[in-house]
C-alpha cells in the first residue's frame, strides 16, 4: 500500500476548456505560461510540446519537470496544473486529440500488455536529438496545414495525431517493467483504474479494496488531486466516453448509455446534462453545427475508419486497395463503396492525395531533393511523382517550392 506517498493538492475546483473547445479541433495552439495555471481538467485528450522555457506540470498530484523537449499526452482523467519558472516562461505547442481518431481507438481495445504499459508509464517524455527533431517536424507539418481547410489537410492532421499517439505507446512499451511498477499515490492509481473499468459496476469500496485502502481514504485522495469524489470522477469519465460515442453514425442513445457504463437511459440523460449543460442530442447538434472551416461531421463507420487509418499510416508504402483488403479482411467492393459514398472519390485518388499533401509539407519545410521526397511519400520514381503533383497543383514540385518558400535559404531565413 502506497498511501504514504503524498500527492500535491490542487487549489480550487478545476476549470475546463482551457486548451480545448469546439473551435480547436485540428488546430495548432501556441501558449505562453509565465506564472501558474488554475487546475485544469479537460473533456478531451491533448498533446503538449514545450518549445522553450522551464517549469513543472503537476498531473493527478504528481509533479514532473518541464523544459524544451518535454512532450506530454494528457487524458480526460487527468487534472493538471502548469507552473513556469519566474525567469523562464513556458512556451507550448498544443493539439487537441481529434475525436474521430480518439473514437476509433476507443472502439478497438488494445492488447492487455499495451494497456498495462500505458497505465504504468508517466504521461510526459523528455525528448532530445533525433526524437525531438521528429516530433518538432510533425508539429511544423501540422501547423503548415492550418491554413488549409480541405479534406486532405484534415486527413494529414489526423494522421499526425495518430503518429503522436503511436510514439507514446511505443515509448511506454519500451519502458514497461511489469515486475517493478513505479510508486504512485493512491489517487493516481485509482484514477487510472476507474478510467480503465468505467463500463463495469465499480464502487468506491471495491476500488479502494483493490489497492488495499478504504473508501474514505480513496474519496479523500481523489478530491485532493482532482477536486472530485469517486462517484463524480466516475460519472465524468462516463460522460466523456459518451460524448465521443454520440458522434458515431448509427449508434443509438441506449447503446451509447450502456457502452459508457450508465445503469439506465434515465441516468445517462440526467448525468450527461448535469456535466455538459445540455442533453446528449443537443450536444451532438452543437458540435456538428459549429466550427466553420474545421473538419466537422458525424464519425463514419468503424469499417471506414479502419480503412482510412490503415491508409494514412501506410501512405509511404505502395499500398493499394487489394493490399488494404487483404490486411484488414474487408472486401474490395465494401472499401470502394464506403470511400466513394463519403468522399465522392476512389480509394486510389484518396491515397494519392494523402501522399501529395505530405510531399507538399516536405517541399516547404525541408531541402530534400525531389527524388528523395518522391520515395519518402511512396512514389516509385520522381517522374511519376512530378506528373501527379503537376496534375493536382498545376506546376512541378520544384516550381511549387520556389514560389511558396518566398526566396528563403536553407536555414529558412530571408535572403
UniProtKB/TrEMBL annotation:
Residues 188-286, 305-403 form the HTH araC/xylS-type domain. It holds the Pfam family HTH_18. SMART domains: HTH_ARAC. The keyword Transmembrane does not apply. Keywords: DNA-binding, Transcription, Transcription regulation. GO terms for molecular function: DNA-binding transcription factor activity; sequence-specific DNA binding. InterPro entries: Homeodomain-like_sf (IPR009057), HTH_AraC (IPR018060), HTH_AraC-typ_CS (IPR018062), RmlC-like_jellyroll (IPR014710), RmlC_Cupin_sf (IPR011051), Tscrpt_reg_AraC-type_HTH (IPR020449). PANTHER family: ARAC-FAMILY TRANSCRIPTIONAL REGULATOR (PTHR43280), HTH-TYPE TRANSCRIPTIONAL REGULATOR EXSA (PTHR43280:SF2). This is AraC family transcriptional regulator. It comes from Extibacter muris. The lineage of its organism: Bacteria, Bacillati, Bacillota, Clostridia, Lachnospirales.
Amino acid at each position: 500500500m502506497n498511501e504514504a506517498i503524498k500527492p500535491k493538492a490542487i487549489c480550487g475546483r478545476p476549470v475546463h476548456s482551457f486548451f480545448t473547445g469546439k473551435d480547436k479541433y485540428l488546430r495548432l495552439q501556441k501558449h505562453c505560461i509565465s506564472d501558474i495555471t488554475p487546475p485544469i481538467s479537460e473533456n478531451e485528450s491533448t498533446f503538449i510540446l514545450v518549445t522553450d522555457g522551464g517549469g513543472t506540470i503537476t498531473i493527478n498530484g504528481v509533479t514532473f519537470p518541464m523544459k524544451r523537449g518535454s512532450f506530454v499526452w494528457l487524458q480526460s482523467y487527468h487534472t493538471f496544473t502548469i507552473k513556469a519558472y519566474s525567469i523562464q516562461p513556458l512556451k507550448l505547442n498544443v493539439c487537441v486529440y481529434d475525436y474521430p481518431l480518439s473514437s476509433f481507438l476507443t472502439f478497438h481495445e488494445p492488447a492487455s500488455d499495451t494497456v498495462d504499459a500505458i497505465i504504468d508509464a508517466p504521461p510526459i517524455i523528455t525528448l532530445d536529438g533525433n526524437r525531438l527533431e521528429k516530433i518538432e517536424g510533425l508539429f511544423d507539418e501540422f501547423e503548415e496545414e492550418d491554413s488549409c481547410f480541405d479534406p486532405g489537410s484534415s486527413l494529414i492532421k489526423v494522421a499526425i495525431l495518430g503518429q503522436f499517439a503511436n510514439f507514446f505507446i511505443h515509448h511506454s512499451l519500451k519502458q514497461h517493467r511489469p515486475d517493478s511498477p513505479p510508486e504512485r499515490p493512491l489517487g493516481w492509481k485509482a484514477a487510472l483504474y476507474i478510467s480503465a473499468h468505467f463500463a463495469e459496476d465499480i464502487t468506491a469500496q471495491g476500488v479502494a479494496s483493490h489497492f488495499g485502502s478504504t473508501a474514505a481514504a480513496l474519496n479523500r485522495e481523489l478530491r485532493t488531486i482532482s477536486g472530485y469524489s469517486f462517484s463524480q470522477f466516475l460519472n465524468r469519465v462516463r460522460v466523456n466516453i459518451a460524448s465521443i460515442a454520440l458522434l458515431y453514425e448509427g449508434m443509438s442513445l441506449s447503446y451509447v448509455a450502456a457502452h459508457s457504463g450508465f445503469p439506465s437511459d434515465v441516468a445517462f440523460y440526467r448525468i450527461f446534462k448535469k456535466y455538459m449543460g445540455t442533453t446528449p442530442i443537443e450536444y451532438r447538434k452543437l458540435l456538428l453545427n459549429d466550427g466553420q472551416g474545421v473538419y466537422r461531421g458525424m464519425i463514419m463507420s468503424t469499417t471506414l475508419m479502419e480503412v482510412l487509418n490503415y491508409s494514412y499510416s501506410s501512405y509511404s508504402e505502395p499500398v493499394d486497395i487489394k493490399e488494404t483488403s487483404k490486411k484488414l479482411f474487408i472486401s474490395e467492393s465494401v472499401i470502394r463503396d464506403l470511400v466513394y459514398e463519403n468522399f465522392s472519390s476512389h480509394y486510389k485518388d484518396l491515397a494519392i492525395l494523402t501522399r501529395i499533401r505530405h510531399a507538399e509539407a516536405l517541399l516547404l519545410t525541408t531541402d530534400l531533393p525531389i527524388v528523395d521526397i518522391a520515395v519518402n511519400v511512396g512514389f516509385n520514381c520522381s517522374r511519376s511523382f512530378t506528373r501527379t503533383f503537376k496534375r493536382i497543383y498545376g506546376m512541378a514540385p520544384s516550381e511549387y517550392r520556389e514560389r511558396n518558400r518566398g526566396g528563403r535559404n536553407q536555414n529558412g531565413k530571408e535572403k
